[in-house]
Amino acid sequence: MMRAATTCFFSSLLIMRCYAFLGWGEEVNNYMTWFSEAHFASISALAEVSATLSTSPPQMPRDRTSPPIISPDWVATVLINRSRNGQLTDKGKPSLFAQEVTKQRRALLNFAKFPIVPIEWVGTYQEWYNITTLEAPQFVGISFNGNSYAYAMPNASRFTDLFGFLKGAKDSGQTTFKGKVVHRWTLQVKLPTFEVQLEALIDEFGQPVKLLQATAVQGVNQYESSYEFLSFMPGQTAPELWVNFNETQSEHPLNCSIGPSEDFTTLVTDMYIFHPENKFDVAGQDLADLTGETIFVCLDVISNQTSPGDHNYSWLTKWEVEHLAIFGQYANCNGYSPPSCFGKETFLVGHEASYYLGRQPAQLRQCHMNPQVGEWYSLPMAGECKDGATPAYGVCSWRKVRRVKTIEGKCLFTGGKFRNVCLHDARAPFSQSQRMLKTAFDSDDPKEGGCQPIPVSERTKELVV
Questions:
Q1: How far apart are CA 360 and CA 113, in angstroms?
Q2: Which residues sit opposite 376 in a β-bridge?
Q3: How many domains does the chain have?
Q4: Is the pLDDT of residue 35 over 60?
Q5: Residues with Cβ within 8 Å of residue 61, at least 6 apart in sequence
Q6: Strands (E), 218-331
Q7: Same structural domain, 333 and 409
Q8: Does residue 314 share a domain with residue 201?
Q9: For the whole prediction, is pTM greater than 0.90?
């Protein structure tokens, strides 16, 4: 879903320079969700296929052409397309792909310029956005600008050669790809939890030009991934992709104190959330300060022209939240009933710069404020204070003090004025847009730019008629 226009160049040392931009709004917001689903579904399915082939190698016809043998170590530039249940989610994003079977690891790197960073960041490393998926023995994870998350999956310990399936593949004859004659190798495997279809197109030199993966997960979701190999360098490695890899930190993320006492200091923070109608449970959700929420909403309305995207966000609420003065790793959360959160921090309030933008390493963003791009917070379900409890280390980490105000999104979006101001601001910190959003909450008078509060019962969480 994320749009990108990218030109990449590689030196002999595999130093990459990509001149690109990431897409706006909802396409960026949901990147972690669809990317992790599609990519890790493929990983798990390939592990199952590999196990099946190793225990029960299929019988091959005697007159069959021998399958190609692809170098176990390679570096490639690939153009990736992904879809879920027939809907395209990722179109034509050039990436650096590197596999080392000898070390049982593989990395997929997307590196691009983020278009709305503060003007003073342009031309510096803080303008860039790095998304890397990593597979290693007993570990699968994803890193967003250095903020690394371990992904829980049962087959994480079973690393699989991406082209290992070829030893069981069927010779499906010749076809053409971009005007060139290539050879097709296909494999279909049905397993209790997966149905996998794999296809590799191999050129006259025995090198892959395209790989297709279709994975049906328990008959519920169908994922398709297409990798077009723009270049393929057999026998090469890219160790620089692993320089900052820290499996322990991914599995056990660090926390940081921003007060004099980790155990007793608490803060009351104004937090905003853009959400569906009547969805007021913020446990397991992501919220933001005024700057962080403005950037989120601006990117959303810009990318979707005049209204929010397909997530049904239509109301905005301002909360006062009391929390421990200790921040854990930000948990990227999506959905309701129940929410789904990405990350291993389940107790402390998570904190990050909006869209993971800014300084590196990630702990600098987590443990300090990021006023130029705003703050994002995650409120873990297990950390919520209940039954009158107040935040205390080992008891609970956060509680809702009060709901300050809820407004309808259309108060901001109707007529396109807010979107036009977002377009005029163009870059963080979206100062004029921030003032509009602040006024919408501070005032109830539409003539002053304020928005009428939605009358909501705190007890029933429903509209008061």
A1: 15
A2: 288, 352
A3: 2
A4: no
A5: none
A6: 221-234, 256-257, 266-275, 285-288, 315-324, 326-329
A7: yes
A8: no
A9: no
